[in-house]
From TrEMBL:
Residues 358-377 are annotated as: Disordered. This is Alpha-amylase. The keyword DNA damage does not apply. It comes from Microbacterium enclense. Belongs to the glycosyl hydrolase 13 family. SMART domains: Aamy. GO terms for biological process: oligosaccharide catabolic process. GO terms for molecular function: alpha-amylase activity. Coiled coil: none annotated. InterPro entries: GH, GH13_cat_dom, O16G_dom_2.
């Protein structure tokens, strides 16, 4: 079955200028862990198609799919060998088209992940580069350099990979001698492209068009802050306390270099030439909100993940500050703020918000981690945090399974772990597998309904039976019911396009604001807070009469 650009987008209100992305709630699907129609233990695109009604029922506006393109899966698909095809473990291009059409039929937009910073080492270009000589056009698509030392035996600089270990790997030249080195910010199976090379730029414009022609509504752009490296590749030693994506550090020679903005301007033009509001969302871990806002100036990307919001501790003053700063800084460039609490790279917020020890981004938690979270407190906080987030003006991102209140899986056996971080740090960092466990659909089914065979690429905890979607669907007090209520009220009241007015009088440990027809009160303190006697629209947990308990958020009808 093939679709043209027009008939793949049948039902959407996609008139230019509607700018759906400004207010959308976008649900992240991590395909390998969402639903597995083939039964091999890895989720797939037919699995997504089979559950589109559940997503419509949840009430999301769009989905973002993590990579499903051809890949050896050394970094769960973020190592792409062919940008124009679906990996057979996820299905086929026809399966993608069917999924896209099914989503559009339900009014759900579809964003796909695009990984431009690096390819897989199995990509045909990299294979050609390995066979070609130093200085050749094939090598110039990647970042090959001669080594330091008398015989080139030392890496060209001291950079350290985000996943641990060095950032360079030496190759053996065609004549069998030790040769040049290539740069890989992530795993050695993920060589970085050279984005100063026009051939690389042209190739990615063509890849954008390939997916736009199929009808996608936009792209989540992986490692958008990494494409350009500082001239001369100067040595740099990261702060050991900083997150692995360098979000806190200033002036990192491989993050946030000014030259990336030209790339986004070129991409903006490519998208603008298509009908119906296609959008680009940047994954850019940068030191400040103000710097991130430069990524979404009116001729660049449309959105950027608000990782500053995600990284904010469960603290009322800090939350008020980051919300205000985000609305100001993104507003100053005419962009919406986004909001996000979980994704496939961070500890799920039902666990993270109750951690009692520092946990740098990318470290993960496992059996030996200090400060493990109390799961009951974590879930309370997560429900309160999401209830606060979904009332904010702008666009919000959800990560599959958070609507079920899933916690991070802490006790995965060592031999089940697959994140390259775990291997490259020799177990020092657990990495991200704990937030990637296949999600539960049906309590009494093999693999909790993830598939029909019971196979699962990461083991699911026994406690997840009671978190399965079918159980929660029937329970008005469940986390799923809370998310459905929040999303329905948000949509009915147009909160995404609203505005925020802070409310005083509830005390320092409370975040309180008005957005249009609702008042939001979130109690982050240790004491209950008195509420005015008004209609409660949604509550993240049980109330104590007229009082709002700790770690609870309510939406009430504004006076
Ligand atoms: C992004 C992805 C992450 C991946 C990395 C390398 O940060 O979200 O999962 O490992 O890029 O592509």
């Amino acid at each position: 079955m093939t679709f043209t650009q027009q008939d793949a987008r049948p039902e959407l209100e996609s008139a230019p200028g509607s700018e759906w992305w400004r207010t959308a709630v976008i649900y992240q699907i991590y395909p390998r862990s969402f639903a597995d129609a083939s039964g091999d233990g890895l989720g797939d695109l037919p699995g997504v198609t089979a559950h589109l009604d559940d997503l419509a029922d949840l009430g999301v506006d769009a989905i973002w799919l993590s990579p499903f393109q051809r890949s050896p899966q050394k970094d769960a698909g973020y190592d792409v060998a062919d940008y124009r095809d679906v990996d057979p473990i996820f299905g086929s291009l026809a399966d993608f088209d069917a999924m896209l059409a099914g989503a559009h039929d339900r009014g759900i937009r579809v964003i796909v992940d695009l990984v431009p910073n690096h390819s897989s080492d199995q990509h045909v270009w990299f294979q050609e580069a390995l066979k070609a000589a130093p200085g050749s056009p094939e090598r110039a698509r990647y970042i090959f350099r001669d080594g330091r030392g008398d015989n080139g035996e030392l890496p060209p600089n001291n950079w350290e990979s985000v996943f641990g270990g060095g950032m360079w790997k030496r190759v053996t030249e065609a004549d069998g001698t030790p040769g040049q080195w290539y740069l890989h910010i992530f795993d050695e199976s993920q060589p970085d492209f050279d984005w100063t090379n026009p051939e690389v730029r042209a190739e990615f414009e063509s890849i954008l068009r390939f997916w736009l022609d199929r009808g996608v509504d936009g792209f989540r752009v992986d490692v958008a802050h990494g494409l350009i490296k500082a001239a001369g590749l100067p040595d740099y030693t990261p702060d050991p306390e900083g997150g692995s994506m360098g979000g806190d550090a200033d002036e990192v020679p491989y993050w946030g270099q000014p030259g990336v903005h030209d790339v986004w301007r070129e991409w903006h033009e490519v998208l603008a030439a298509y009908d119906g509001d296609r959008a680009l969302c940047a994954e850019a871990w940068l030191p400040t909100v103000a710097q991130t806002a430069l990524w979404v100036r009116s001729d660049e990307m449309h959105q950027a993940f608000n990782f500053h919001y995600l990284e904010t501790k469960w603290d009322a003053e800090a939350l008020r500050a980051v919300i205000e700063e985000s609305l100001d800084e993104y507003g100053a460039v005419g962009a919406p703020s986004t909001w996000v609490l979980s994704n496939h790279d961070v500890v799920r917020h039902a666990s993270r918000l109750a951690l009692t020890a520092d946990n740098p981004q990318g470290a993960g938690i496992g059996p030996k981690s200090p400060g493990k979270p109390d799961p009951v407190k974590g879930l309370h906080r997560a429900r309160a945090a999401t209830s606060l987030m979904l009332a904010l003006p702008g666009s919000s991102y959800l990560y599959q399974g958070e609507e079920l209140g899933l916690p991070e899986v802490i006790d995965l056996p060592d031999d089940a772990r697959q994140d390259p971080t775990w291997f490259r740090t020799e177990g020092e960092r657990y990495g991200r597998d704990g937030c990637r466990v296949p999600i539960p659909w049906t309590a009494d089914a093999p693999a909790y309904g993830f598939n029909e065979t019971g196979a699962a690429w990461l083991p699911q905890p026994a406690e997840w039976a009671e978190l399965a979607r079918d159980v929660q669907r029937e329970d008005p007090a469940s986390t799923l019911s809370l998310y459905r209520s929040l999303l329905a009220e948000r949509r009915a009241r147009g909160l995404g396009s609203g505005s925020l007015e802070w409310l005083d009088g509830y005390g320092d440990d409370v975040v309180a604001f008005r957005n249009g027809s609702i008042t939001v009160v979130a109690n982050l303190g240790s004491e209950s807070v008195a509420l005015p006697a008004v209609e409660i629209l949604v509550a993240s947990g049980p109330l104590e009469g007229d009082a709002l308990p700790t770690d609870t958020t309510v939406w009430i009808a504004a006076a």
